[in-house]
Amino acid sequence: MRFDLTDLRLFLNVYEAGTITGGAEASHMTLASASERIRAMEDTLGVPLLVRERRGVQLTAAGRALARNALRVLHEVEHLQGEMADYGSGLKGHIRLLCNTSALSEHLPAVLGRFLADQPGITVDLDEQRSDDIVDALRTGLCDIGVVSDVAEVTGLQAYPLRPDPLVLVVPHDHALAGREQLCLVEVADLPFIGLPAGSALQEHIDHYARRLGKRLHYRMRLAGFESICRLVGQGIGVAIVPRPVAMRWARGARIGRIALGDTWAKRGLLLCVRRVEDLPSHVQKLVAHVLGEVQP
What we know:
alpha/beta, D-Maltodextrin-Binding Protein, domain 2, 4-stranded mixed beta sheet, single chain, 11 helices
């Protein structure tokens, strides 16, 4: 079996993009060349690595194993580069970071911006996923760092508390429930909701626990940003569940009130998770230290 580093980087890029076209663009090669390389890899192994669908590709079991090992090999190469020449003047490292919705929207962008400003040779792929999917990706080696809710099962990973991140219900400031200090989802599950788009990590998290109550939330509208959600709530269109920092920031501008959720799954905090810090390339360790230093209260 003979794969070069270009093959391995291409395959990881295809995995991250979800399409061969996107993987080819990230690898700076033509679609025809990328497709030919992947077919050659499949022919060499004698098994399919991708399930090709109308909207993209999914990894087969063999593809997941290849992605996991490709990531490890590329990490070893980066280790070698660092020991030999302090990374030279070229690309110093690439980091794959997965996080939940709240971390993506509220906590990480500015922190990562400051890190990247000080580390011009490092690139970061930041993607939003459900916390349970993130810990699975960590265990299988498909990402370097994960920022997840502490309700996720993180056994076998190194986990570092970042900060509290409870979910709250937001209602119009003059809503009948506005005076409540706390309630549970079952008490409001039949109200009209404003939510994030279907498939977003936080929305799937909320809907999962609604289904466990035997409820299906009714969404009058779905919007991509928390600001827009809060403003529609303030207009009386529905209620919404958002991270507490969001509710606090938009309380006055959107004319909304917040109510604590008593459900255990809503009383959550954020964790930064890795497999083993000491096994990570030095540039990934630097990012871990930076995030812990800036985000921890």
